[in-house]
Amino acid sequence: MTEERATGRRVDDVALSGRELAVLPLVCHGLTNDAIGHQLEITEGTAKAHVSSLLKKVGAVNRAELCAKAVALQIMKLPAEESD
Q1: Distance between CA 84 and CA 69 in Å, rounded?
Q2: DSSP 3
Q3: With a threshold of 0.85, does the pTM exceed it?
Q4: Between vectors from CA 57 to CA 69 and to CA 77, what angle results, nearest 5°?
Q5: 38, 64, 70, 82: least surrounded by Cβ within 10 Å?
């Protein structure tokens, strides 16, 4: 497994781990838990656990809402904004 991990980040009382910050954009690009696992060299179950944790921490009920809230909280930018 890859041991490369980003530093965690806190935004509006939402504290995300480095791994959650790595998982979030993959979720928002539509990757499945299995694909996220392959991308990050973790198991599908671990990817699922990170997605579940993100949903809970952000207060979202599904992946689409997670991504919308992540943009609203400025945890991540929309793809068009990333090129600025």
Answers
A1: 21
A2: -
A3: no
A4: 30
A5: 82
CATH number of 14-74: 1.10.10.10
Instruction: Judge residue 20's burial from the number of C-beta atoms within 10 Å of its C-beta, 0-12 exposed, 13-18 middle, 19 or more buried.
Output: buried
Q: Is the dihedral of CA 64, 56, 47, 40 positive or negative?
A: positive
The percent of residues in the chain predicted with pLDDT above 90, rounded, is: 68
Lowest-confidence region among 29-38, 48-57, 68-77:
68-77
Residues sharing a CB contact under 8 Å with residue 77, sequence separation 6 or more, in sequence order: 71
Contact 21, 4 (CB under 8 A): no
Domain spans, the chain = 14-74
The answer on pLDDT for 13 being more than 80 is: no
